[in-house]
Amino acid sequence: MKKISVLLLALALFATVYAGEEKGTKPGTQTSTRYESVTISTQRDVIFQETFNGSNTVAALEARGWVVINADGGGTTAPWYQGSTQVFNAFEGPDTGYVASNYNGANGFYINHWLISPPVIVSAGDTLSFYHRSPDANPYDDSIFVRYSTTAGTTPAAFDQTWGKYRTGEAGWQLWTGTFSHSGAVRFAIQYYITNGGPSGANSNYMGLDLVQIKGPVVPVELTSFNANVKDGAVVLNWSTATETNNTGFEVEKKQNGQFFSIGFIKGSGTTSESRNYTFVDNKVEAGTYTYRLKQIDLDGSFEYSKAVEVIVAPPAIFALNQNYPNPFNPSTKINFSLAVDSKVSLTVFNILGQKISILANSNFGAGVHGVAFDAAKLNSGIYIYKLEAVGIDGSRFTATKKMMLTK
Ligand SMILES: [Ca+2]
Ligand SMILES: [Ca+2]
Predict the structure, then answer these.
(1) Model pTM above 0.70
(2) Vertex 312: Cα angle to 322 and 240 (nearest 5)
(3) How far is the CA of 170 from the centre of ligand 1 (A)?
């Protein structure tokens, strides 16, 4: 395999009403409000980028400000050269749009090839990233050092900071990232370094680099408000953004049993400098305390969490049976009722002759506001009566009836 690669490489250096009787009064309005404003930070500015999508001869690299050093002093090929489609294709851009190195650049068993970046002004906390790989299931491991020079020097001795030594990807392109701890002009270096390499060595084959980026301070998807309120027994989440950058959207998460779970997704606005408002309604709540947060997701899949907001859904002050909605209806409608305490509930539909048509509910419900759907697809037009009977755990009893009209 290695020999074949030698030949191939040698050749290829170039790659979203009817009123009824009712015992009781209107349900109390539940208000609740504990919230805080939050800022979600996500998108970063790209300070430096090299795609290697043009020519990657040493001369072309140097013309773009890269410094190439053949520190082992030998080899039959240039230390860095155009990626070859005969080994693998580039991570991005044209298939040959990456820079490569291999064992034929060795001085005997020793390979020491430096690819030193142009000077870049960074701030501590900025991140360097690039993609690297070798052939899949590489039998001859390749490895690189990643370093930077806080003096923006161009000699190996000037590289006073070392992130570490890493084996290049052996299952497709792999992303490497590191964080600068220094502010000022720097150069970073990717050093292909192997001591038992060369055409006869055990530890070198072929490696490529693509899409080198330095990303700077975060540009936020600026969340100017995020609050939760209770309306008609549901939790209404509202949030606003001042600006958005590459925003795919917001996963809405709710805490249950100590863990957050996604309960819905609201699409974002991509990139905009205009203020945007978003709403999400969580109908699946009973009396209790709930915690929500937003997971803001970028187009590239990266994400950030907002701070969490807490909302208290107070139990309704009284029992109530609401008018169905819509009404008149065809063929389905929804009936809401409020329970001041946990109750055993029956909700039954009768026709105008008092004959039982349908049992919509006959079980225990928690204190809170509940909604039950009624589908009358198989019934004839006319007036129907629905009756709620609730027996609370505190012994309270509530009964109410209302009329509704099916119009086909
Ligand atoms: Ca590329
Ligand atoms: Ca060399």
Answers:
(1) no
(2) 95
(3) 18
Higher pLDDT, 406 or 221: 406
User: Pick from 194, 126, 116: which is nearest to 148 by CA?
Assistant: 116
138 CA to centre of ligand 2 in angstroms = 21
Token pair listed for 252: 């809405």
Q: Give the angle 389-391-393 at the CA atoms, nearest 5°.
A: 155
For residues 83 and 52, give the distance between their C-alpha atoms in angstroms, rounded to a whole number: 9
Ligand nearest to the CA of 109: 2
* Max Cα–Cα distance, the chain, nearest Å: 102
Q: Give me the pLDDT at residue 227, please.
A: 85
Ligand 2 centroid distance, CA of 96 (Å): 21
Tokens of 399: 């009964």
3-state SS, residue 105: helix
Lowest mean pLDDT among 94-98, 213-217, 259-263: 213-217
The first and second tokens of residue 51, run together, are: 């795609």
Torsion of CA 371, 262, 298, 214, to 10 degrees: 160
* Domains of the chain with bracketed CATH: 44-218 (2.60.120.200), 223-313 (2.60.40.10), 320-406 (2.60.40.2550)
Q: What count of other Cβ atoms lies within 10 Å of the Cβ of residue 132?
A: 24
Shortest-distance ligand to the CA of residue 89: 1
Q: What is the pLDDT of residues 249-299, one digit of tens each?
A: 999 999 988 899 999 999 998 888 788 999 999 988 888 889 999 998 888
Environment class of 72 (CB within 10 Å of its CB; exposed 0-12, middle 13-18, buried 19+): buried
Ion ligand 1 nearby residues (CB, 5 A)? 51-53, 90, 92-93, 97, 210
CA-to-CA distance for 204 and 172, rounded, in angstroms?
Answer: 17
Cα of 235 from ligand 2 centre, angstroms: 66
